[in-house]
Amino acid sequence: MPKCNLPHDHGQAIERELEHMPSVENFQQVADIFKQLGDGSRIRIFWLLCHCEECVMNLSSMVEMSSPAVSHHLRQLKAGGLIVSRREGKEVYYRAADTERAQLLHHMIEQMVEIACPSA
């Protein structure tokens, strides 16, 4: 980020931190990832896929949603790079991507559930 002269000095010396601030594009990428998790059903599906590999029909049964609705969420998660799929015959199986991003989000979801619902 270019050097910034702030109009008011509040004694925080934030200017040094501004030099290391990620770009607007970096923050937009993070926002796009969080959009992926902006739906409770999608979070549940992602969480399940962090623990198993499943087909649409079984996922639909697990989350008590229609297959088209689950497929919609799977497309969004896959487009966001959070899940991957593989075909075996006519069946397609989904699982969480083996990436640092997916692992971090999985961990964050579990921590947030524990904080928000400590008796769960």
TrEMBL record:
Keyword Transcription: yes
CDD domains in the record: HTH_ARSR
The UniProt record lists the keyword Transcription: yes
Annotated keywords: DNA-binding, Transcription, Transcription regulation
Residues in HTH arsR-type domain copies: 22-116
InterPro entries: ArsR-like_HTH, HTH_ArsR_DNA-bd_dom, Metal_resp_trans_reg, WH-like_DNA-bd_sf, WH_DNA-bd_sf
Segments crossing the lipid bilayer: none
Gene Ontology molecular function terms on file: DNA binding; DNA-binding transcription factor activity
PANTHER family recorded: ARSENICAL RESISTANCE OPERON REPRESSOR ARSR-RELATED, HTH-TYPE TRANSCRIPTIONAL REPRESSOR CZRA
NCBIfam families: HTH_metalloreg
The protein, known as: Metalloregulator ArsR/SmtB family transcription factor
Source species: Candidatus Flavonifractor intestinipullorum
